[in-house]
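Input record (one chain):
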Amino acid sequence: MTLNPDQSLTPFAHAAGNRCFGCGDANPSGMRLEFLLAQDGSIVSLPSVAERFEGRPGFLHGGIIATLLDEAMSKAVRALGRTSVTRKMEVDYLRPVPSATPLRLEGRVVRSEERKHWAEAVILDAQGQALARAQALFLEFQLQAGR
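The corresponding structure, as predicted from the sequence alone:
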């Protein structure tokens, strides 16, 4: 599931005042991930995740790995113009994910049916080796006025 390297990437904007743990600029404790949109609708992030998100020294906590994958997939759904929440997610932890080193995170929607969107994501190291993968089902929802 790696993007064609010839694809150009454009910034994928977040809402002002976003407090999301994964991508919110307004969350001082968050990861503040930045995302890019590929021509094919896939989402890419190129983080170097801080040591403060480690489990074992030198490696990211499993919950943080799941967060990275979830963020990439949810942004891929949002790139379709849909607001959604994660309904079910399965993570394959393939290799330890190092902290404070360049990573590549990719996510894409693989199927949509009405309010349901199935997505997949991968975390790659600098050599392009897959470190973790996930698949998830997202459910669309409508924000209520005043929220």
